[in-house]
Write a structure and sequence with these properties.
The complex is a heterodimer of chains A (323) and B (137).
Chain A (H helix, E strand, L loop, with lengths): L20 H12 L13 H5 L3 H29 L6 H28 L2 H13 L1 H14 L5 H15 L1 H12 L4 H29 L4 H30 L5 H18 L8 H4 L3 H7 L32
Chain B lengths: L2 E4 L6 H9 L4 E2 L14 E6 L12 H7 L2 H6 E8 L9 H10 L3 E6 L4 H22 L1
Classes of the chains: A mainly alpha (323), B alpha/beta (137).
Amino acid sequence: MKDMTPKTVLKAINWNRIQDDKDLEVWNRLTVNFWLPEKVPLSNDVQSWATLTPAERELTIRVFTGLTLLDTIQNTVGAPSLMPDAQTPHEEAVLSNISFMEAVHARSYSSIFSTLCSTPEVDAAFRWSEENPHLQAKAQTIVDKYRAGEDPNKRKIASVFLESFLFYSGFYLPMYWSSRAKLTNTADLIRLIIRDEAVHGYYIGYKYQRAVERLPQAEQDALKDFAFSLMFDLYDIEAKYTEELYDGIGLTEDVKKFLHYNANKALMNLGYEALFPPQVSEVNPAILAALSPDSENHDFFSGSGSSYVIGKAVATEDEDWDF
Amino acid sequence: MSGLFYFSSASGNTARFVARLGLPAARIPMRGDEMPRPTGPFVLICPTFADGQGRSAVPKPVIRFLNDPERRAHLRGVIATGNRNFGATFALAGRVISEKCGVPVLYRLELAGTDTDLARTRAGLAVFWGTECLTMA
């Protein structure tokens, strides 16, 4: 009789039958971009670390434990919670990659710690991360949305806000140090994390847009209201977290502009318009340059292209474009 | 005023930017052989999809679009979209097209652009086409 019970057919993933081209595109991008912290020569920052004041060191370690917490959540709760909602088997595979890379990110901060810091300093910062009310509040707000039974689309919104917004109060600091030629190898590692998080936020935001466009208008409107209201709640927490961390070093206002700029980008990943107006979202150019070093900064319309040179025209064939 | 052509993938950032720009623009389709054919000078708005090494920055449909000497002859400049979080490869598609086709990168913006990006692009295009007319005269 046992054989009569209906069974769910278990399906093997077929990467040669793709329902959504984005799945393959993002899978390829993420796998090509794979990295491990061992490839970054963090020990070259030992001397630079010694030039920071004790307060600057404490701030840096705290910021990194805060980032570790978010990566831990995304690795163990966030990305896995999105898998049951996946529309395609390939989306699940991409989410498993995202989940694993978050584990790599979380692991990387411990590599920084073991290279630069003393064990008591690090232990104290981990205790701090468990006791800091603002850090706990932002993490808890997100985890609440990841719970089973919550609307899958709200889970995606929370996930995009974690990936594209909540990390940035932390990412600011290594970019700031790097703009002052400090901890430059650590900044190289952080830039690898930033690059991954950008793909994650983009992909989950894309899946959100695909899911939402099928809903009736009233539900779409309700989700948009939910997204903006969650952004306001998270922003309030982030503002307090930022003040507590950065007031001492006098950088709070600068960090807040970076938060506004990234909040706008997180909303764009969901397909929405920016929330914060340009005046409060203009990021310190030194921080922007630290984010994308070596990317040429000249263009016509900004009027910054004093040394612009037009490249030589060449015959264009498919092979030339390297794909 | 001359033409605008753009490509946007399914995530739609570039399409949203172009829609808010409010200027007539033709979309390069994701697939199929029906490529729009510019009849006069135009500016291309193109997103970037580069990997960590900068490979595959220019989307394939844009490559197909530009792999035609007649179309290329009308290209005057490129506006590239991207994300600064990709570091050195930010808006790389602009640089690649600029070097391949011998046209300037007019502007770079992130994702679907901000109000500042819209204002700069509108003003920049107006000045650019003005200059272009003077040069042609």
